[in-house]
Amino acid sequence: MAVHKLPRRSVLLGMAGAAAALGTAAVAGCGSTISTSGPKSSGLNAGAALAGSADAGVLNVWGGVPAANGPQKLLDEFQAKYPKIKVSYTQFVNDPNGNVKLDTALQGGAKIDVLFTYSFDLMAQRAKSGQLLDLTDTVKADSSLTKLSRPSYTPVYDGRIYSLPTVAEINFVVLNKKIVQAAGLTIPDKWTTSEFRTFAQKLSKNGVYGSFNYPPVAIPTLGPDARYNADGTKANFTHPAWRKEVELGYAMAKEKSIFPMDQIISQQLSAYSQNAFLSGKAALWITAPFSLRFVNDVTNYPHDFVTTFAPLPTPDGVSDPYNTGLYGNLISIAKSSEYSAAAWTFVKYWLTDGAKALYVAGKVPALQTDSDDAVASALLGSNAAKLYDVDAFKKVAFDKTVKYGVPTKFKGAAEMSNAMTQQTQQLLLGQITPDQWVTNMQSQGDAAIAKDA
Amino acid sequence: MPRVRRDPSQLMTADVVSVEDPLANPRTHRRRHPPWIAYAFLAPNILGVLAFTLVPLVGGVLISFTKWDVVSGLQGIRWVGLANFANLLHDASFGHALVRTLLFVLITVPVTVLLGLALAIALNQPIPGQGALRAIFFLPYVVNIIAIGTVWLIMYNPQSGLINRTLRAFGISSPPGWLIDQWWALPSLMLISIWAGIGYVAVIYLAALQDMPIDLHEAAMVDGAGIWTRFRTITWPALLPTTMFLVITNMISSSQGFGMIAFLTQGGPGSASTTASYYMYQNGFMYYRFGYAAAVGFTMFLGVFVFTSILWRWQRDRGLYA
What we know:
The complex is a heterodimer of chains A (453) and B (322).
Chain A: H1 8-28, E1 57-63, H2 71-81, E2 85-91, H3 96-107, E3 114-117, H4 120-128, H5 136-140, E4 164-169, E5 172-176, H6 177-182, H7 193-203, E6 209-211, H8 218-222, H9 240-254, H10 261-266, H11 274-278, E7 282-287, H12 292-296, E8 307-311, E9 326-333, H13 340-351, H14 372-380, H15 384-387, H16 390-397, H17 413-428, H18 434-451
Parallel strand pairs in A: 1-2, 1-3, 6-7
Antiparallel strand pairs in A: 3-9, 4-9, 5-7, 5-8
Helix pairs in contact in A: 9-18, 17-18
Chain B: H1 8-20, H2 26-31, H3 35-63, E1 66-67, E2 78-79, H4 83-90, H5 92-123, H6 130-142, H7 145-156, H8 162-169, H9 185-211, H10 214-222, H11 227-255, H12 259-264, H13 276-286, H14 290-317
């Protein structure tokens, strides 16, 4: 009787062939479109009507803020108001891995109706790829959203609105009042970057660094697209404003009036910068309202000084500077949502009444409906009188003259941001000079833009 | 029942017959099932390998010939042929990352293997607390990488770290900045890699040493061979297959090292510790250039494949493996 054999080599070759075929199919997807470029955004869903009922549906929301820091409360209040819309919240970590996880989930057909994007270039990428619902007509038809239809607050892609900012994130300077007063200094209402440096120098003694970080010059001078030339085809790091900024940082690092970069890296303080300020090791700290939750948390960050506030310093010779803060934490509706009308109900709720639930996370609503006093009271907590100079906060945080901008150029943005982090680390460690920083950043910026061209 | 002593030569003969000619017995032959039944039992595993190994592997290779940002979905994939590989040839950052990876592999692998061997020989001696010592040296290999990284982060702190405080105590006034120093960042990571890998190498060597027949050493000692001669002529040749295994597996894992870099330096300062695998991560996960990242990965795979093939051929030519 003959013995039938399946040769091992044949089986292995068969497996490899099947893998190649399946792999090809997986990569090719809809084979006919493999060689086409990404779809054009405009017209993708322009004027698309919202689907389903505005008062009923099942929504999946993906956001970066932990549920316990406000979103859960917002969801509970929303459910009470709209019992027929069932909402579940998934927190993703807002880092490269977390965002890729969200994108692959979107691609994999996961039911995501509402999502948050925390960087403008990623929002543009998601809009370009047709993942986000075009909200332009819906926003413009709603008179309560007039403020957010202005280009100085809301990013647009190809002239269309795909996301709305939920948070107004002004940048300001927080000061350790005890150290400032001990040095006999007066907290300024208005100051320049040079004055900031002198101020920090005077505070730098007895193991205290004047400031945690140095003030920006380029974005306040040039606006949020400071990294690009006028038509966005080249980097713009040879502009004198960038040179002034890095010369300032370099000088402050050398004279030790800012917190040393070697300690920022060694103690991983770039993610925990509150440690330096609340431990009294840095007297000034350029930050945003989201940091106030650490000041409020006297259990984990015990401190015995009052925190006061000053505006962001103005670059010398600049009369109408931009604030480096932004209207951000962008909320969007996934184009694939089956319940986009209900999703819009949720988005509007988050932008208006729901936003109050996030005061606890230090989030000032983009559409502020409460008075400044009420928002300040909610942000600064029950211990405000002991922890803060409340009047200074209200004056600085709710300054209506502050100028915001919205970035509009995104080619190579992520690579440029990473290069800036790396080069600035080296600059502040004294490993490169400001001249080298400018040269390196210009070439790396140009290369990053060219790669995305 | 009395035990029957059998002639060992008969036993051996019977064994050989049963192993080499199983079909010689017609009754055994009749009970054999057709081979497709065996493959049916293997099918779940084959499907698993196809779905979770081969398809992603082939998919990864195909992606390296495309421009893809993930966000655009499968319909956003654009076939670019060899463009990614052509760009790699002109990409200075990739070139530097490749050199750092080579340095990392060429230094950490031999040092880890040699120190692991020395440790295994030491632990193979009858010393008190031998079991505890083996566990202690193996511990870094099994401890979570973040825990290890945190300990080293504290030790490497240029101001308050144990290492620099010790160096200052010995009169070195300007010790290196370690992880924050552009010249020392990569060597610092190499040191951690070596420290974490020695235990594993030692355990594998220890197993090989304990399998080694002692009578060879006894015979050599009777012939007057010293320690070094016995190591050179008996121990080392016997350990060569184990050494090759350790060199190859360490080379593969070192060239793919990522976790410690991501946690401790993020490729910095500047790009001083950006190896090829971290560069791949940057391009894929940070810049959303998955086609380019796949090309970096495929190039790395080819490099490791060539190195491994050379080593296999070398050991096969020396008769270490058939």
